[in-house]
Design goal:
By secondary structure, the protein is of the alpha/beta class.
Length: about 300
């Protein structure tokens, strides 16, 4: 009742050749309006490994997904749905992440120290302040990002006043640098953060706290390798992180020091834009990307 009229008005004011939906409600609204402009292409990108019914409607010209399992889940509701499997989209800054050495120099982290990056989802599902304190007590350098969750940010900053090994952040653009500095990224199994860590070449420790599509995404990340899983308690997070730090790289993870990589940071995934462009050509849209050459700059050289 709300999304369809709002989208109709927006398209009347600014006509478009393509409506690309990245959320289930948008997918439904765009599909409902397809008959009003048959020449306009409606494309859905579902970031989860399982597309539930609200994602899938007649009137969608193409579904973009990031795994065979997701493709099958779309065809659960539309057996003949047009589907293309593409890599998860990742911002250019992650392809230009600094080397581990450079990142640690900028953050004043000793080269040989164990370092863990905690990234909150924004929902505060995990006791990251407690986990950060437990890891700091074990001698680990902890980079802790609260995102837009101000309550979690306050907790992390309070923990950092008592533990010198904790460096807290709220919402920050430094995530590529923080990932590059870390040996391990601890987060929820969200597609964006996991894809970013894989591009930088860092291992993942994923919290098993979300049922439904969260569990599906978790299992998919574990299947890809380079990832472990832990429970939601602070002690669970700390124990699993310490165990992963002690056991070395997992199958599928990049080298933490970028050994063998010409630019000195760990090898990650290839660029995603060409695959998206090729998929869109299936529905008559020629959006061949002009790939910018991403360049990392130290935090001190960037404007806030």
């Amino acid at each position: 009742r709300r999304a369809v009229p709002a989208l109709r008005a927006s398209l009347a004011a600014e006509p478009a050749d393509l409506v690309l939906s990245v959320f289930a409600t948008g997918a439904l609204a765009a599909a409902r309006l397809k008959h009003e402009a048959p020449e306009r292409r409606t494309v859905v990108y579902c970031p989860d490994v399982t597309a539930h019914k609200l994602w899938v409607h007649e009137g969608t010209d193409l579904f973009l997904v990031s795994s065979p399992a997701a493709a099958a889940s779309v065809r659960r509701f539309r057996p003949r749905a047009p589907v293309a499997i593409v890599p998860p989209p990742v911002r250019a800054a992650f392809y230009a992440a600094p080397s581990r050495v450079s990142a640690r120099e900028g953050l004043r982290i000793p080269p040989k120290a164990s370092c863990v990056l905690l990234i909150d989802s924004g929902w505060g599902f995990a006791p990251f302040a407690g986990a950060a304190a437990a890891l700091a007590d074990s001698g680990v350098r902890v980079l802790a990002v609260a995102g837009r969750n101000h309550a979690v940010e306050r907790q992390l900053r309070e923990a950092a006043t008592a533990k010198r090994n904790i460096i807290p952040f709220g919402y920050t653009s430094q995530v590529p640098e923080l990932m590059a500095a870390a040996d391990l990224v601890v987060t929820l199994p969200g597609a964006s953060t996991c894809a970013e860590a894989r591009v930088v070449g860092r291992r993942l420790l994923l919290l098993d706290v979300m049922p439904g599509h969260g569990r599906d995404n978790l299992l998919h990340e574990l299947e890809q390798g380079g990832a472990g899983v832990c429970g939601p308690a602070a002690s669970d997070i700390a124990a699993s992180a310490l165990a992963m730090l002690d056991t070395g790289p997992l199958e599928g993870a990049g080298s933490p020091d970028g050994a063998g990589s010409p630019d000195g940071h760990a090898p990650g995934a290839g660029r995603w834009e060409p695959a998206f462009a090729a998929a869109l050509r299936q529905v008559g849209l020629d959006l061949e990307p002009r790939l910018e050459e991403p360049r990392w700059e130290p935090a001190c050289a960037r404007s806030s």
